[in-house]
Amino acid sequence: NETAKAALGRATWKLLHTMTLRYPEDPSNDERAALNSYFHLLSRLYPCGECATEFQALLKKFPPQTSSRRAASLWLCAVHNTVNHRLHKPEFDCAHLDDEYDCGC
Amino acid sequence: NETAKAALGRATWKLLHTMTLRYPEDPSNDERAALNSYFHLLSRLYPCGECATEFQALLKKFPPQTSSRRAASLWLCAVHNTVNHRLHKPEFDCAHLDDEYDCGC
Ligand SMILES: Cc1cc2nc3c(=O)[nH]c(=O)nc-3n(C[C@H](O)[C@H](O)[C@H](O)COP(=O)(O)OP(=O)(O)OC[C@H]3O[C@@H](n4cnc5c(N)ncnc54)[C@H](O)[C@@H]3O)c2cc1C
Ligand SMILES: Cc1cc2nc3c(=O)[nH]c(=O)nc-3n(C[C@H](O)[C@H](O)[C@H](O)COP(=O)(O)OP(=O)(O)OC[C@H]3O[C@@H](n4cnc5c(N)ncnc54)[C@H](O)[C@@H]3O)c2cc1C
Questions:
Q1: Nearest CA-CA partner of B69 in A39, A45, A43
Q2: Would an 8 Å CB–CB cutoff place B25 in contact with chain A?
Q3: What ipTM describes this predicted complex?
Q4: pLDDT digits (tens, 9 = 90+) for B4-24
């Protein structure tokens, strides 16, 4: 069911981008470890087997960048673009991240 | 911005429910630890400060149930209902979980 897979993907990217864009500007070591673990656990638990396998390979090749909000959000944007490329979707311009994601917090 | 907060919440619940409904029927200790850590990390990183605080309190009161797919998905359904109650939203009938969430995996 491709529609369900796409809807799950959209929901997940939304959470992930909003999360990195609210991640601290200047994180503690503990916050850095939390973000890194979060992505690794998600890649194990993500409920689409094929996507999870690909995601795990991506994280190995491009480990999460956790040193700042900017580093984390640009890293995730690049990772999402790698997935876009594989799925023949257009590349997203990472300069527009802030306009696209509003968490309403 | 309440609209953005609601959209983020909907996206997150979708990922979480789909995840617990694909969680193993008979998880290993390692898989149990992964799911437990995942929820705790999410409650720290969730990009809505008020929601994150409430979520952390909820996890303390109702620790993640990880012994099986059924236990995890019913636990999450109950937790979501607790949030629904606080926000004056209708209670969801947890018997309908399987019909509602399809991951397309
Ligand atoms: C970790 C992960 C792995 C996945 N692996 C697979 C897979 O292997 N096979 C598969 O079929 N599907 C996979 N998916 C789903 C896939 O990535 C899409 O989510 C799905 O196909 C729906 O695509 P979409 O065109 O609606 O846009 P999505 O890719 O879901 O993006 C949603 C919105 O985010 C914005 N956006 C796009 N690119 C970026 C970017 N680089 N940075 C920030 N914002 C951006 C755009 O506004 C876009 O409309 C995966 C999803 C995730 C979260
Ligand atoms: C962890 C977390 C904490 C949150 N805390 C707050 C907060 O403190 N303040 C705040 O304003 N918002 C909070 N939110 C957002 C809030 O829960 C809703 O997501 C948001 O208000 C949008 O609500 P909705 O009516 O669209 O349905 P949602 O509650 O987002 O639910 C989406 C869909 O899931 C289904 N559903 C409903 N209940 C259940 C259930 N029990 N089990 C399974 N499926 C169900 C229904 O089909 C529903 O339409 C939180 C979200 C999350 C993920």
A1: A45
A2: no
A3: 0.97
A4: 999 999 999 999 999 999 999
What's the topology of domain B2-100?
Four Helix Bundle (Hemerythrin (Met), subunit A) (1.20.120)
Mutate to test the pocket of ligand 1, among A42, A61, A83 (most ligand atoms within 8 A of CB): A83
Whole-number Å distance between alpha carbons of B95 and B66: 19
B11 and A CB contact within 8 Å? yes
Between A and B, how many CB-CB pairs are < 8 A? 101
Q: DSSP readout, B7-70? A: HHHHHHHHHHHHHHHHS-SS--HHHHHHHHHHHHHHHHH-S-HHHHHHHHHHHHHSPPP-SSHH
Provide the 3-class DSSP secondary structure of residue A59: helix
